[in-house]
Amino acid sequence: MKQTIHKEIQSAGHKVYGQVNRMWPDELPILEKIEAERAYKRLINKFGSKKIRYYDKWINRKLKVYRIRKRGTKTWKTEVRKCWLSLNGDTNSLSKGWRRLVHDVSHYVYDFRFPNSRDHNIAQAKIEQEMAQFVIDSGWLEGKLKPIIKQPLTKDEKKSKKLLNYEKLLKKWESKMSLANTKVKIYKRRIKNLK
Question: Number of structural domains, the chain?
């Protein structure tokens, strides 16, 4: 029995989703909030563009990162979905962590590129596959998006840092003073010449 075109496209999409699921490592690290924010922004910036025809020209249109403003503050934050974070420690399920983040962002990009079309088809699966490969190749699973924690300075390090700063400032002001003395001499000579 021959399949309909819709069923063929759907089965091809399922094959790609299977490839995406097999490309992830067996043990995924826990996705923290700051990593999720950074990964979301970078994936949207990397994959969220399309060319559209505008009168006689082709222009690039970019997908905007969805941000929320906290009440009473002037700062904007990227909205991180709770399902992206692995709060219960289960990092390998399809509904949590890195897999869910990439899946959701691939939906955002697909909806932007192909508005008014059905989700979970082969095109959306291909976008998700590209994103998953990009995440793995970029080393984000090894923690490259985590913030670098600076060790506090000891008293001696603080003292030497202050000393270096004061020496730089002294050198800067001495050069300004030298320039000022030179300018004073020049203007005195000009005044003397005019008299």
Answer: 2
